[in-house]
Amino acid sequence: MTVATRIVYADVEVGTELPTGTFPVTRDTLVRYAGASGDFNPIHWNEKFALEVGLPDVIAHGMFTMAEAVRVVTDWVGDPGAVVEYGVRFTRPVVVPNDGTGAVIEVTAKVGAKLDDNRVRVDLTATSEGKKVLGLSRAVVQLA
Predict the structure, then answer these.
(1) pLDDT at 80 over 60
(2) pTM for the complete prediction?
């Protein structure tokens, strides 16, 4: 049995870097997410349709991308319920080719500010193919 390390507000400083996250995304991942979320928009699974509407290929669901990014924070703090606020701006889609490899979402994060009531703001950077896919990605986390 592994005991999670508890993150304590007094031990965290502005600039503290969280462990980086790397999240693979395949067409299979998107179909599974569509089933779980109920979002069956064909831009997320039908290459022909995606191309017809002007996209470079099938793209990942925005909410999927957002959820993958915040995993860096929930893994760090050890409790998804500690995230009391989370927001992003979608800056560019994650293109998921049907090549057996798919795409990768890479996420870095650091503490951007210490707030009142043992809360910290974590600033995230999410990229795919070296390009930023989320902007103003921030989470407020309640610490002990």
Answers:
(1) yes
(2) 0.92
